[in-house]
Amino acid sequence: MAELTRSTVGRKIFMALTGWMMILFVAVHLLGNTTVYSGWINAYAERLHALPPLLWAYRLFMSVVVTVHIFFGIQLTLENRRAKPAPYFVKKHLRATFAGRTMIWSGTVIGGFLLFHLVHFTLQLIFPEHAANRNMDSAGRPDVLGMVIYSFQHLAVSCIYGIAVAALFLHLFHGVESSFQSFGLQSDRTQRFIVRAGAVAATVVASGYLSIPIAALLGILK
Amino acid sequence: MDLFLYVWRQSGPEDKGSLEQYQARDISPDMSFLEMLDEVNEELTREGREPIAFDHDCREGICGSCSQVINGIPHGPQEKTTVCQLHMRHFRDGDTIYIEPWRARAFPVIKDLIVDRSSLDRIIQAGGYVSVHTGGVPDANAVLIPKTDAEKAMDAAECIGCGACVAACPNGSAMLFTAAKVTHLAMLPQGRVEAARRVCVMTEAMLREGFGNCSNHYECQSVCPKGIKVSFIAKLNREYLKSVADKP
């Protein structure tokens, strides 16, 4: 294990593994969020919070995952910068994508957003008077839907979410495909397909998340 | 044809170095890129100036000595071609050409366009060999190797160790080079025996030499004069996982 955390390939595998745990979270979180359209989100949120030990165990697990991903991400980036001290006067990128070259920055934006998101919807401190925990719906459940709609009708809040979704798109655009390479699951035959699948996955996730603030701004969500 | 050149000049490892402008006059489109530099050097020598130092040896695309980043691309604009095999017909009269050395911490500049690539040799020294006793020369077909394996090994063995992959990599990583050597030996029965140890010690040596980590940009594959593919890096990653899983 200690060897894995020092090795160049081992750390890549840690990045991919923790990356996938977050991808799964992001996908399930998106599926959960789409209940805003059917109006079931209050019931969904209530069920989710019905088992505090499980919820906290998962939160703890994800904190470890995020920490490992951030730690190795920063460590590898610093090592890579040191390995290329002098820049070229002229440098053409033939294959490296913008998304791939800016992983550390899209990651930083997502990390910053994560803190904002927790303060906003988990601690509910941004608009305390509209916090779901204080306002109950007709069935006596915390009114998550009302809180979401109220928040996203503020253009500034929706913009913050828009920027974060853009960063998530870039991060997944490179990350999904890259993880297959790190796990050694790529071959000459499958590579083109996996590159496309990564782009499609990033697009689906980004449009799914973006649709919610847009729907709130347009007054579609009720 | 006449060309404007911006060439990296650096008198020694400690010198800061800078780009200097030169003119290449009356260049034939049939000349190779190195012959064009020879012409420029002839003129510099005639003028009593220091000629441009650059690496070269076979000049037929197999030794891996020539190492120049031309207009931002290691080995220049033509795909799967070393600098020595790049011809001036790919440029136009009046073109401006930037010529820089390979840039990476593991490749310190010795002089002008010449860099020290012995770090690649040390990766090989760490484990890029077969040390088990393989006996005398076997009879033909005595050791059966599936054709697809033999071909994959030969594709990997095409690597000439020029270091263009490192020069192109935004992280200065030598992963494509290391992966080619690891795959080449792991695909064949004689090399298979030590595959698990090899992949560990060679990747360790890569980091020790100051190369960066691979972050799957695939820039290396685009500039490799021998068309070494990044699927070999996936193969290296598999070999590494196998070595970890099989550890006694």
What does this structure look like?
The complex is a heterodimer of chains A (222) and B (248). With 222 residues, chain A is mainly alpha-helical. Chain A has a single domain (8-81, 97-217), classed as Fumarate reductase/succinate dehydrogenase, transmembrane subunit (3 helical TM bundles of succinate and fumarate reductases, Up-down Bundle). In chain A, 71% of the residues lie in helices and 0% in strands. Chain A has 9 helices and no strands. Chain A has helices at 8-33, 35-38, 41-48, 52-82, 98-101, 103-122, 144-152, 155-182, 191-217. The radius of gyration of chain A is 20 Å and the shape is globular. The N and C termini of chain A lie far apart (51 Å). The model of chain A has no long low-confidence stretch (mean pLDDT 96). Chain B is α+β, with helices and mostly antiparallel strands and 248 residues long. Chain B is 36% helix and 11% strand. Chain B has helices at 33-46, 118-127, 147-157, 164-168, 175-186, 189-192, 195-208, 219-223, 231-245, and strands at 3-9, 18-24, 69-70, 73-74, 96-100, 109-111, 114-115. The longest helix of chain B has 15 residues, at 231-245. Chains A and B meet through helix 1, helix 4 and helix 8 of A and helix 7, helix 8 and helix 9 of B.
Short overview:
The complex is a heterodimer of chains A (222) and B (248). Chain A has 222 residues and is mainly alpha-helical. Chain A has helices at residues 8-33, 35-38, 41-48, 52-82, 98-101, 103-122, 144-152, 155-182, 191-217.
